Fold:
Amino acid sequence: MPMFTADMEEAFKSSSIVSHLKPKRLEVCHGNSVLQPEAQMADYRLKSGIQ
Structure:
């Protein structure tokens, strides 16, 4: 994701809506569909170095 945004921390703040909506599938414009995105957020934050 760093390729598409200059502020990863802000991007993660914006993505908090995923935790509230709990979609089964998320469509993104620069990639593939993400299944069960809420379940993947914690791991993604950890790998990205954002706590």
About this structure: The helical segments are 8-14, 17-21, 37-48. Strands lie at 25-26, 34-35. The longest helix spans residues 37-48.
